[in-house]
Amino acid sequence: QPLSRGLGDVYKRQIKMFVSFCDKYHKKLAIPEIWLIENLGVREIEAFMQFEAELLDTRIFEEWLELFTEDSYYWCPTEPEQDNPHDTLSIFYDTRDLLETRIKRLRHPSIHVQTPPSRTQHLISYVRLREGNPSDSEFTIASNFFVLEYRQDNQRLFGGTFEHRLRRNQKDLKIAWKKVNLINCDSVFDPIAVPF
């Protein structure tokens, strides 16, 4: 799977170029100080988010799973402002083990809901800190998203807010948890097989 490794190198180069640009021009452009932290800050987080989206859109699910910590979970609530996954049903509430099972199902040649497979495109914007600082060992970010899904002449659009709890693992970022706040989370959906 050299595609994603190559993309990772491209994103790291983009971060370094952007940090250099910010260091040179930040007084003229009034760039927020948080963007100037060497190898940290919003640019690094955006690169990570783009990398995650690319893995999902290219269906490299096994490598996407590697972005998650061993104790992680992936959650998509069914109610606006739902503060925990235990008091009511969820669209998804998967531990890392359940995510691995979900990916194995997606790879099964006879999975009806993904024959033929969906094609998706993520659009992520307005990445911001929700809690902590990118230099911390753990911090929470939020971002807005659209996910366009196409399958069997049917196109669906999902939108809302992602929340990621990110953890530094040596030099890499890992996902401790991911929450998908769909704007229409309390609607009725046809089967959703591919992760957001």
Please give a structural write-up:
The chain is an alpha+beta fold. Strand 4 (138-151) and strand 5 (154-169) form a beta hairpin. The longest helix has 28 residues, at 2-29. It starts with a helix and ends in a 14-residue tail after the last strand. The chain has four helices and six strands, in the order H-H-H-E-E-H-E-E-E-E. 31% of the residues lie in helices and 36% in strands. Strands 2-1-6-5-4-3 form a six-stranded mixed beta sheet.
- Considering DSSP H and I runs of 4 or more, what fraction of the residues is helical? 25-40%
* Widest beta sheet: strand line-up: 2-1-6-5-4-3
Low-confidence stretches: 34-39
Count of helical stretches? 4
Run of helices and strands: HHHEEHEEEE
Number of strands: 6
Short recap of the structure:
With 196 residues, this protein is α+β, with helices and mostly antiparallel strands.
List the helices and strands and how they pair.
Elements: H1 2-29, H2 42-57, H3 61-65, E1 68-77, E2 90-95, H4 96-107, E3 119-131, E4 138-151, E5 154-169, E6 172-182
Parallel strand pairs: 1-6
Antiparallel strand pairs: 1-2, 3-4, 4-5, 5-6
Helix pairs in contact: 1-2
